[in-house]
Amino acid sequence: MRIGMLGTGMVGTGLATKLVQLGHEVMVGSREKGNSNAVEWVKKNGANASNGTFSDAAAFGEIVFNCTHGADSLNALNMAGEGNLDGKILVDVANPLDFSTGELRLTVSNTDSLGEQIQRAFPRAKVVKTLNTMGVPIMVNPSMLPGEHTVFMSGDDEGAKAKVLEILKSFGWKDAVDLGGIKSARGAEAILLLWIHLYGKMPDGKFNYNIVRG
């Protein structure tokens, strides 16, 4: 499968590396082709790895991942181009976090979410929110933690969620909870406020949530 990865930070390159290892063709996109992180990533990941602009990556991918900073995601997706996203699954891994005041806050919460904003801005894309509630190593290798633990999904399109679930299973995920429509991304994004405080106690990031059923 061809996958477009928007974002060249730890999340974008971490997911891109895993997807290449699983046999997918991945193009990592940034504001300008030739981004140093993207070029270095391509050198390390072989013939199925490439880089380009946001627009290049969105056009290339059968599925597109948004791994940009949450505050910049809508701008990055606009640069990717609405036409390049039409009808495609858009996996949103971003979080609307802001540290500019010196205190962590969400730029959108309670009555809206970044996932919903993206779906409204790109109504013909099939937005699925997932993988935003954990660190990158766990995203791509859930077996690094002992026992069962949980990844969440939100989205309005059932077929898109089923396809994303296939990708999650290929990463090794066994416990995926479908929270419902994209509106439920409000809850998944709000978890990051707790995650940041937990990270302060466990700075190696090797933790996740487990939903215990009774």
Labels describing this entry:
alpha/beta, 40% helix, 214 residues, 9 helices, eight-stranded mixed beta sheet, Rossmann fold
**What is the name of the CATH superfamily?**
NAD(P)-binding Rossmann-like Domain
Q: How are the strands ordered across the major sheet?
A: 3-2-1-4-5-8-9-10
Mind describing the biggest β-sheet? 8 strands, mixed
Computed CA radius of gyration, to the nearest angstrom: 16 Å
How many strands appear in the DSSP assignment?
10
| N-to-C SSE string, H for helix and E for strand | EHEHEHEHHEEEHEHEHEH
Distance between the termini: 38 Å
Helix content: 25-40%
CATH architectural label:
3-Layer(aba) Sandwich
What fraction of the residues are assigned to beta strands by DSSP?
15-25%
CATH class: Alpha Beta
Enter the CATH topology name. Answer: Rossmann fold
Average pLDDT confidence is 96
**Overall SS class:** alpha/beta
Walk me through what this model shows:
This protein is an alpha/beta fold. The protein has one domain: 3-Layer(aba) Sandwich (Rossmann fold), CATH 3.40.50. It has nine helices and ten strands. The strands form two sheets. The protein has an eight-stranded mixed beta sheet with strand order 3-2-1-4-5-8-9-10, sandwiched between helices. A two-stranded antiparallel sheet has the order 6-7. Helix 1 links the parallel strand 1 and strand 2. The longest helix has 17 residues. The relative contact order is 0.13. The model has no long low-confidence stretch (mean pLDDT 96).
